[in-house]
């Protein structure tokens, strides 16, 4: 079994130190494939692609189970949604192949997929209705707020443990904090912390739906909840200050102007005849337009989620792999992922779509490479392109990398 889902009494972090086991015993201990099949059971999704339309039709009847107001739902505690999953790479070598990369460490794209599935299951655990095996909610990933790594290498032959719980709740959205640890010399040491935001929608995934409120039970939990509220405000501020809505600040204007002056070709005759069109690349630099990689993915039914759209974890894995390849070809040496930021899921991706991914080095400093991956779908019937996601990955390269230099204002 690839992963075992269980609830333990020994917790590894500030978030989970405040929790105590919400369930006595752990019947069944499902593995990660069973976690995904459990998600299918919760929403009544089909296992056969040919039955998916029928399965989604049957969900319509669950509309009657939706709460009319959030106040009608029983409040929950952080420990009510706490889950723990074991990924036994050390004790069960037969599952390693799927997680292994060519450098003999763990494929980070696979970890993103597991975090996405676990995050959704944690939210279904938070919103579970007693005596009701099927959930009327469609819970989907809205964004990955942040993933920070504190280990460069994830070992392919040591057991991994994921833990997590709901850390903040709005009216229709939930923040989930997850932690990943790896077993070394009998102890689990931290590898990464992740913060995801999930949204709840009606059974047909058309309109927002209310979720159970969250009650913090201790000063530590109050702090975690307050941080969730601050995260939400920061995202609102960030969107308000978007360059598409607001002019650059004085500091930003100076940075842009300095880059512009540094790339002007002043070798022409006389200061007055310098052409704004004539640009030169500073030493040990690369034009931003020359630091791109593109990829195309055909979205097959195999990659669908429980709502018969393309699984968010699959999109993250593909975007990460293109981001890694972009950083690798740019820096000329092996890059290591340091953090993942601001992955926005703007539109669902339908099965059968053509998914176009574009990786772009957008900032460099010493050994660090920031890569932005833009993903859009192309509908061959309507000939329309739609942005579905924007991903931001920060890598550290083994060697110092050239400076990336923008050529245009955009």
UniProtKB/TrEMBL annotation:
Similarity field: Belongs to the acyl coenzyme A hydrolase family.
Signal sequence coordinates: none
Keyword Metal-binding in the entry? The reply is: no
Looking at the record, the residues that make up the HotDog ACOT-type domain are 81-204, 289-401
Name one process (GO BP) from the record: acyl-CoA metabolic process
Keyword Mitochondrion appears in the UniProt entry: yes
Where primarily located?
Answer: mitochondrion
- Under which name does UniProt file this protein? ACOT9 thioesterase
* Annotated localization: Mitochondrion
Keyword list, A-Z:
Hydrolase, Mitochondrion, Repeat, Serine esterase, Transit peptide
InterPro entries assigned: HOTDOG_ACOT, HotDog_dom_sf, Thioestr_dom
Cellular component annotations (GO), alphabetically ordered: mitochondrion
MF terms in GO: carboxylic ester hydrolase activity; fatty acyl-CoA hydrolase activity
């Amino acid at each position: 079994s690839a992963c075992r889902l269980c609830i333990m009494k020994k917790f590894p972090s500030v978030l989970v130190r405040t929790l105590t086991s919400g369930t006595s015993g752990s019947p069944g201990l499902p593995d990660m494939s069973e976690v995904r099949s459990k998600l299918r059971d919760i929403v009544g999704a089909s296992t056969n692609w040919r039955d998916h339309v029928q399965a989604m039709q049957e969900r319509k009847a669950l509309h009657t189970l939706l709460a009319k107001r959030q106040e009608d739902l029983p409040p929950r505690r952080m420990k009510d949604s706490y889950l723990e999953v074991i990924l036994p790479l050390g004790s069960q070598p037969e599952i390693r192949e799927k997680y292994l990369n060519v450098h003999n460490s763990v494929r980070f794209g696979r970890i993103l997929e597991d975090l996405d599935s676990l995050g959704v299951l944690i939210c279904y655990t938070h919103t579970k209705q007693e005596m009701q095996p099927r959930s009327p909610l469609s819970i989907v990933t809205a964004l990955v707020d942040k993933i920070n790594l504190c280990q460069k290498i994830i070992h392919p032959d040591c057991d991994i443990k994921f833990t997590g719980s709901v850390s903040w709740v709005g009216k229709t959205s939930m923040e989930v904090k997850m932690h990943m640890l790896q077993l070394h010399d009998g102890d689990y040491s931290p590898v990464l912390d992740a913060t995801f935001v999930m949204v709840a929608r009606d059974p047909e995934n058309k309109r927002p739906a209310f979720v159970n409120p969250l009650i913090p039970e201790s000063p530590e939990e109050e702090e975690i909840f307050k941080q969730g509220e601050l995260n939400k405000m920061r995202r609102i501020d960030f969107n308000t200050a978007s360059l598409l809505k607001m002019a650059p600040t004085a500091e930003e204007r100076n940075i842009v102007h300095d880059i512009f002056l540094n790339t002007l070709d002043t070798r022409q005759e006389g200061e007055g005849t310098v052409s704004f069109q004539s640009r030169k690349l500073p030493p040990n630099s690369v034009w931003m337009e020359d630091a791109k990689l593109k990829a195309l993915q055909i979205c097959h039914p195999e990659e669908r989620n429980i709502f018969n759209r393309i699984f968010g974890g699959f999109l993250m894995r593909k975007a990460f792999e293109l981001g890694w390849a972009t950083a690798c070809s740019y820096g000329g040496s092996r890059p290591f992922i340091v953090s993942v930021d601001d992955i926005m899921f703007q539109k669902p991706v339908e099965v059968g779509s053509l998914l176009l991914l574009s990786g772009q080095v957008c900032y460099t400093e010493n050994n660090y490479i920031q890569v932005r991956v833009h993903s859009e779908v192309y509908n061959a019937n309507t000939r329309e392109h739609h942005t579905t996601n924007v991903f931001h990955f920060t890598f550290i390269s083994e060697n110092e990398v050239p400076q990336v230099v923008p050529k245009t204002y955009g």
